[in-house]
Structure formats: C-alpha cells, structure tokens
Amino acid sequence: MLECRSCGAGAPVDEHFCPQCSRILALGRHGDYFAFLDFPRRLTIDAQDLEKRFRDLSRKFHPDYYYNATPTERLASLERSSYLNDAYRALKNPVSRVEHLLAIEGLPPAKSEEGTAKVPPSLLEEVFALNEELDEIRELRESGTDPARLRSRLESARRPIDEKREEHERQLLELSARWDSQEQAPAAEKRATLDALRERLLERNYINNLLATIEREVANLSTGSGQPAAGSK
Amino acid sequence: MGKVVGIDLGTTNSLVAYVDNGVPVVIRDDSGDALVPSIVSVGEDGTIFVGREAQRRLLTAPTRTVYSVKRFMGRGIEDVRGEANLLPFRISGETGGVVRIGIADREFTPPEISAFVLRELKHRAEEHFRRRGEFDFEVDRAVITVPAYFNDAQRTATRDAGRLAGLEVLRIINEPTAASLAYGLDKRNRGTIAVYDLGGGTFDISILKVEDGVFQVLATNGDTHLGGDDIDRLLVEQVIAEISSRGPKGSAPQPSSVPQPSSAPQLSPQAIQEIRKAVIQAKWDLSDVEETEIRVESSPGVPGGYRKRITRADFERLIRTLVERTLDPCSQALADAGLEARDIDEAVLVGGSTRIPLVRRVVQELFAREPHSELNPDEVVALGAAVQADILLSGRREMLLLDVTPLSLGIETMGGVVSKIILRNSTIPASGREMFTSGVDNQTGVDIHVLQGERELAADCRSLAHLHLKGIPPMPAGLPRIEVGFQIDANGILSVAARELRTGIEQAIEVKPSYGLTDEEVERMLIESFEHAEADFEARLLIDARNEAESVIQATDKVLRRPDFATIAAEQLEPGERERIDAALAALKASMGNTDRAVIQDKTHALNHATQHLAEVTMNRSVREALAGRNVKDV
Questions:
Q1: Is B214 within 8 Å of A59 when comparing Cβ atoms?
Q2: CA-CA-CA-CA torsion for A97, A80, B430, B161, nearest 10 degrees?
Q3: Nearest CA to B283 among B344, B225, B207, B230?
Q4: What is the pTM of this model?
Q5: Surface-to-core class of residue B263, CB atoms within 10 Å of its CB (0-12 exposed, 13-18 middle, 19+ buried)
Q6: Which letter does DSSP use for residue B23 in this model?
Q7: Phi then psi for B447, rounded to 5 degrees?
Q8: How far off is chain B from A109, nearest CA to CA, in Å?
Q9: Inter-chain contact B429–A81, Cβ cutoff 8 Å?
Q10: Which residue has the higher pLDDT, A46 or B249?
C-alpha cells in the first residue's frame, strides 16, 4: 500500500498514479521490476513489447513533464523515472532478468564471489584439463615455441569450454521455459527450477571467466611474439 | 515570468535561440550574425568586453583577453598546464582545485568568464524581444547545452555559470542530443542515428534510437579535449617553429632546420594571436579551396611577417592523427550500444570542425554513408536547446529526450579500488545505493570519495567530491546501517542523500567538490558579480559619454575646417562667438581623460550649446547650396 503524498489517499503498491487525485505517486520501497512494468513474472519477454512499455512509461514519468509541478510530484517523477530506467535495463538483458527473478524470489544473488572462487562440480573435469593445458602452453611460450602452433593448441583447448557454454545456454533457455509454464505448479517444483537456474548462472559466470583466461593467453601470444600491436596506424 | 531560451555555450562561439510559434530560430544581430565569439576581454578601466569586440582585442590586448574557457570548465590546473604556454592570459590554481584566470589584478574562475558570455547572450535575446515589442522581454531561464562527454564537475560548472549570469538553468542537455532533436523535427521517422559532433574544443559521438518521438540515447563517448582548437594549435606551432628557426634578421626560413619545441616560443602574445588568426583563416579557406596561403602581416612581434602556401593535402597530413583520434570513441560507443557501424541508418554532422573535408570523409567511411549536414552545423545545437526549452515549458509530450550518463559513477573502497554504483550509458535519471557502516565503536562520521570514470583504481578516475556523513547515532562498530543514495538527474548531475536505516535518521552530508565551486563560493561570486555589474555598468556609461563627446568634437572640428568657414565667421558669427567655441572645444578635449562621466557630459553639453548657432548657420547654408542647383519644382 502506498500513500499519495499529494492527497493522502491510499493506493495499491503497483499503481503509478493516485487513483484519487491522479497525481504521480512517490515510489516507496518497490522491488519488483516485472510488476512495475506490468509484466507477469515470466522470463520470456518480447523485446518490442518491453521497448514500448518503457517508452510509454517514460512519457508518463519523465521529469521534463513535471517542470511546473509541486516539489512532491517532481521528486516522485525523478524516483519513478530512475526506477523505470533500472527496471528496463535489468529486464532487457536475459541474464540480468534471471538474476532479478532469483532476487525477488528470495534466492541469494548468483553473482557472488562463490561463483568464481569455487569450481562448480559439473565443470571439474574441464577445468582440470584446461589448467594443465594452459600451464604447458605458458611454459612453451616462454621457451620460445612457434606462436602459431600454440595458438592452434589454445583453440583446441577452447573447444570443450565453448561446447559447455552452448549447452548451458540451451539449459538456461529450457529452464526459463519451464519456469514460465509453472505458474500453477507446487511451490517445491518452482523452487527446484529456480535453484537450477541459479546453478546454471553460477556455472555460466565460471565458464565466461575461463573463456576470458583463454583470450588473455591468445593476446599474450601476439604481443610475446614481437608482432606489432593491432591498430598501429 | 520572463522568456525562456536555448543556449549553445560553445568553446569558440555561442548562440541563443528560442521557439517562435512552434519553430526554433536563432537570434541574430543587426548584421545577421548569430555567433557570439566565446571571448571575454577586460579593459584597463575594468570594462568587460564580450564577443566580436573582445575578439578584436585578442590582437590589441591579448593578455587581457580570454578565449576557449570552456576547456577549463570543471578542470584542475594540472589538467591544462600542457596548453598554457600558448595562451596569452595567465592561468593558475592550486593542485586539485579549480583553474583560475588572472587578468591584471582580477582573478576569475571559468564559470565567471562563461557567465559574461551567457550575460551577453541574455542581453542579445532581451534586445530582440524588446524590439519585437514584447512587454515582458526579460530572459530569466535557459536550457544550456554541454558536450555529452562532460563529467559531473564540468556540468556543474556550466550550471554555476548560468546562475552567475542571472539565468535559471532549466536543464543542461547534451549537444549531440540537442542536434538530433533539431534534426528530428521535420522528419519524425524511426531509426538509429549517429551524431558526430566535432566542435572548437570537444568531440562527442552519440548513438540514438528514435521511435514514436522518443529520442533514446543508447550510448555516448567522446573526448572533452579534442577539437578545432587543437588543429589551430598544430598549425600555430608549425608556424612558430618556422619563424623561430629563421636567421636573426628575419631571413628566409631554413627548410631543413629542426622545428623548435612548442615550449620555447619567444614570440610575444600579440604575435601568437596574429599567427593564430592567420592559421584559422587558412584552415577555413582549405574547406573550400585546394590551396591557400598562411599570411601574417609584418609587425613588431613578427618582423617581416610570414607567408607560406599550404595545400589541403599538407593540411590533412598535419591533422590526420588528430581526426583519427575520434575513431576510437566511435567504436566504443557502437560497441556499448550493441551495434555495428552498418546498423546506423543516418549519420549527422555537428560542430564547425565538421566542415573540414577530411573529417567528412572519415565519418563517411566509418558509417559507409553520406552524413547529414543540411542544418548549419554551428546553429543546430542551439536550435535543439530551444526545442527542449519549449518542451519543458509547454509540457508537450510528442517528443522526449532520454539521455545517458557518459561515465560510470563509483566510490573508492579498500585499497583504492573503485566500486561502480551507476554504470556508464545508463539512461538518466538514474539512481544507485550503497551501504556503509562504522569501523570503530561510537563513530559518528564516515568519509566517502566519489569518482567518475571507467578505470579500476581511484587514482585513474576523475575525483568528483569527498562526502562527509555526519551525525551517525553512536553504536558499536559495524552496527550502523547507512544507506547512501546516489541520484543522477536528467541534467547528468549528481546529488547524494544518506540515511541510517536502524534509526531512520537522515544524515547530513558535507560535500567538498574536487574541481568545482561550493554553493557558498557561487553565492559569494553572485554577490560580487552584482557589485561588479554596477562597476561594469558605470564603466560602460563612461565609454558612452566619451563616445558622445568624441563625436561632438569631430563634428565641430569638421565645421571649423570647412573651406568657407572664414566667410561664415565674417558674415554671420557674433563677436566673441568664435572664442567661446574654441574655449568650449578645448575644455572638452581636456576633460576626455577624466573618469568622472558627469564632467565629460557637462563639457559636451557646453560645447553643444556654444556651437548651436554655428550649427544652424552652416546647416542653412548647406541647404541653400544644395537647393541652388535645382529647379524649384524639384523641391
């Protein structure tokens, strides 16, 4: 429940304008981007639809249109516009969309350090193999082995990780679809889907870090071999 | 309520525009000139000259004349030391504080100098409205544009300048976005637009998506120290090097000599300004013709003068590296927008430096399409500012600008690392919050260092301000939960609020801006500027009185020198009249050096009185002569 600071009437938490006096409402402690944009809590969002809602609400909230309004309304316009911009940014990107869903469903954030520090069990094998290979490549590089050969070794080392990543993207899509179909499902089933989504996100972070490490090695090969850096003109 | 205008406060030139019956127009002077050079000069007697007048004084009073002050807005002395050696005016300032510009015994901050330019624009607009017969012609509010890549300190400095000029700044908007608004007026189509804005001192690239009249900036990037000024400086340095390498008696330049480093010009400020004027003319020429001449007239500073042919190819070789520095920001902006160059539907050119053919070619190659330049690149930004002012005022909703913050906002954490709170290219207004607590028992204050930039370490980012949270309720260490909210408003300017969540107590925050003025300083300057405004006004009245006196003296001298004056005197002047005229003339001439305006006016009046009869006599004579040769019917 929100209180309209202009007329004092009460308003439902997801309303943007006071049902009584139709003035813009102060934001209060809102936390649900889906509800704010009047979307159901689903992971499939039509990009065009999101854009349109964003533009429409921007036209309603933007401080440009409250220039002559009361300080209360101006503050509300600023808060609501800022929040809308956050919501739009978070829902636009599929990964941050899942992260937001997990947050409002009460799961611990999937971006935390644990995701990068501890190797997820499902990736143990790949990580082990990759680290060994990277160590060897580094040694060979320092002893002056032909960079072209090392580059092809790095590429083959990258392949299993790329495959893992593709598999993960598929799983994320499947889990998202499952979540979207579970609206009437028992709480335990829904929770299982969320937990699985969170696992996948953590692993995804880890995989991206591995790919970044490989990229760095590739870059080291180019600079280490005395080739001119890119963009030397 | 007075009038509202849109102002493009440029590095080189500034303009003012407004919306007249739904159509944005720039306000011109009598000669049709819309540009007010962003130049301020201080006369010996303290008179402030702005615009064309000040521009002329670049050559006659270079050490008292300030140009390109926009480059110093919101900056510290350590940022601008490198370019100080070619500037005729004195700049100083403490390390980690604002730049100060010294002229004779007065010292100005960049916002104060900019305020003089804004005041001139305000005055120009008021004159325009007054002449149109508007009853209430006062201009008291404005939308002012800034480069998109301006940081918080630079935006705040611009807003301070507006306040100092007696303008309520309704909104600070970004120049490329303003330009897109002006372009979007007639063709309200949808698409992705790249605005390439290379002005006198700054470069911006903005990528926008336009749909349903919403101009949404997807990403922006730029360089606030890259523009026409840098091109001019390259040319000036080249000319100085050649002049310095001449023999002692101004012999011909030695082609193979090593150019002198730019830090060792032994030329006077006058000479450097002569050279600057000459190379700017050559630069302009080369936008139209393939070859021209850099031509500096002989003067005490440049004995023998300087002349050299320069082809467009020479010029392009010289500036290519500079122009190509715009490409990296373009790629970064495209990447941030998640687009490739080929996704851009239209490219728009803004800023005077986009008249340079090489710049056009570079943009055309980058986006693989002919860039738009239908609207005058000097005027399009002011037009957009006027449109935005009109939107704010009217509340009309058919158009909406959604801009972004160009730089990430963060705070310094343990080990000098920056923790980002609002990411760059976030649509504004944007907000973020961060929790803080105390480190020791009963700690009542917390210090927070706020920064802007993309780098990981605080030392590599731009310091915005140091915040000091006060009055935290005494609690054991780690118990207070202080939530600090950072809010970037639609101007791209930051404000901060803090609250202790356990007690709900709103915390007082002391803000010490790193490269800006505190509210108290602005307040004090405002008072000083009123005091000076009175002095400035007095000085202007004195000049007016002198001008008036000068014209009466000249008119009198002219009559006294007439070939037929002896005849007139003999036939028509009363005894003693000639002596009275001579005495009044001498008295007025003697009073000209006086700083008391009343004395000059008094003597002017006396001379007018003494010559009244003479004036009538000569006028009648002239009329008779004029009629003498004509037939009565012609009259």
A1: yes
A2: 170
A3: B230
A4: 0.79
A5: exposed
A6: E
A7: -105, 135
A8: 16
A9: yes
A10: A46
